[in-house]
Amino acid sequence: MAKSKKRKVAPGDIASNRYASFKYDLRDKVECGIVLEGTEVKSLREGGCQLKEGYALIRDGEVYLVSIHIPPYGPASRNNHDPERDRKLLLNRRQIDRLKAQTKEKGLTLVPTRMYFSNGRAKVEIALAKGKDRFDKRESIKDREMKRDLSRALSDANR
Asked: Is-contact 34 122, C-beta < 8 A?
């Protein structure tokens, strides 16, 4: 059997961070633009991006995406971008202030959940997240297995 591509959350997604929902309890989600160089956009259109280790950071009143890997674009040999550089996110001042207050008070963090193109522009969805304990992760696994078993039983009953 041929190996298929990685499963995405939605049809138009460039990359998705499915591991974030296992590792964190995701609360509010915010869509924001991202400042990219030309070769980064071309590389994203080819479909290469890794969000698994990434997080967002509020520095000097601005939000930055850290530890996101966008591979170099092949044809642009000399003028390529740094794959691991920090990328600025585009949010309103009110949104930045709200996120800053919530991350300081409640001990939440900002995690990118997916990256996609909307009307030709690259967008990132970040979520306010709280880390799960080991017990919570076991509960997530148990719930997922119960849902899988239930759907199998229903599909067998419908045959």
From this structure: yes
**Domain containing residue 56: CATH number:** 2.40.280.10
Q: Which domain holds residue 98?
A: 13-132
Cα–Cα nearest to 32, from 85, 80, 99, 81: 99
Write the burial class of residue 73 (CB in 10 Å: 0-12 exposed, 13-18 middle, 19+ buried): buried
Cα(153)–Cα(111) distance, integer angstroms: 35
* Dihedral-angle region of residue 60 (phi above 0 means left; psi in -120 to 50 means alpha; beta otherwise): left
> What whole-number distance in Å separates Cα of residue 25 and Cα of residue 129?
5
Q: How far is CA 27 from CA 48, 99, 126, in A?
A: 27, 12, 10
H or E stretch including 24? strand 24-34
- Per-residue pLDDT reduced to its tens digit, 82-103: 888 899 999 999 999 999 999 9
**Dist CA 8 CA 117 (whole Å):** 13
Q: Which of 109, 18, 115 is nearest to 56 (CA)?
A: 109
Is 103 inside a domain boundary? yes
Domain total of the chain? 1
Query: Token pair 């229903």 is at which residue?
Result: 154
**Which pLDDT does position 13 carry in this prediction?**
85
